[in-house]
Amino acid sequence: MDGQRLRAWRPAVPGVAEVLHARFVTHAYPLHTHDAWTLLVVDDGAIRYDLDRHGHGAVGDQVTLLPPHVPHDGRSATPGGFVKRVLYLDAGVVGLDLVGAAVDHPAFADPLLRRRVGQLHRALDGPGEELHAESRLALVVERLHDHLGKARPAPPPRRLARDLRDLLDAHVTSGLTLDAAADRLSAHPTHLVRAFTAEFGLPPHAYLVGRRVDRARALLLAGQPAAAVATNAGFYDQAHLTRTFRRYLGTTPAKFATGAARRPPAPAPAL
Questions:
Q1: Where would you find the membrane-spanning parts of this chain (predicted)?
Q2: What are the tens digits of pLDDT across the range 4-19?
Q3: Which residue, among 87, 83, 196, 90, has the nearest Cα to 135 in the 3D structure?
């Protein structure tokens, strides 16, 4: 396998057709096309590729965006090979009207975009973070639109943020995709993320996670076992609950519940 590593999966996130993490040393991609946008970051080494018969390079401080239906290939530009992370995005996520702009300028030396793509990959790497990933994807696409020359629409009204909060409050356990919320509120997903963050100081996914942690705390204090709490508070499974609970409270659900159980009872009121 010559040091090759490859991991690919399809997350339950609208608009993301595939996630690919790979290391290649000698492998070279032949000329081919995709139906999807190819959003690529290089973590080690460098890549040379031809896009629409023009030569380009992909290196670590750039984000590369290859448009759908346009022929390209790929090969290592260094003897040690390369490590890459790729998102294949449905054609409508970025927009087919921007194919020409992406052919002309497929690489962006943008630290903020690079950081946001990394955050999106982390959100996609495991179940239970779908709303987080959708929010991250919306911000990535907005930044790509900025680079490709697509004008931003007018900022949404404050009422939109409050309507989204009401929707999230009604779906703490069942969950809600960003696309579903956008459809219900007749707004673009990016507008929802921007409006909510501006109004409440945190993005929608962080608000929902906080509400779920609060619900989990209440259920644990009521004596429910952690496995049942995970389901009843909206987490993917017990491991997801434990990981999130530790991040928010610095302890596990089991230890939190044990500490609550050991708390001495309140004294009886004086007669």
A1: none
A2: 899 999 999 999 999 9
A3: 196
Q: Is the distance from CB of 76 to CB of 31 less than 8 angstroms?
A: no
Token pair, residue 127, equals: 């179940």
Does the domain at residues 5-147 carry the CATH identifier 2.60.120.10?
yes
Q: What angle do CA 184, 189, 190 make, to 5 degrees?
A: 150
- Run of H or E including 255: helix 253-261
Measure the CA–CA gap between 125 and 176, rounded to whole angstroms.
Answer: 19
Burial class, 25, CB count within 10 angstroms (exposed 0-12 / middle 13-18 / buried 19+) = middle
Q: Look up residue 172 and give its amino acid.
A: V
**Superfamily of domain 206-261 in the CATH hierarchy:** Homeodomain-like (1.10.10.60)
Distance CA 33, CA 193 (A): 32
* pLDDT tens sequence across 162-182: 999 999 999 999 988 999 999
Query: What confidence tens digit (pLDDT) does each residue in 238-253 have?
Result: 999 999 999 898 899 9
Kind of pairing, strands 47-51 and 16-24?
unpaired
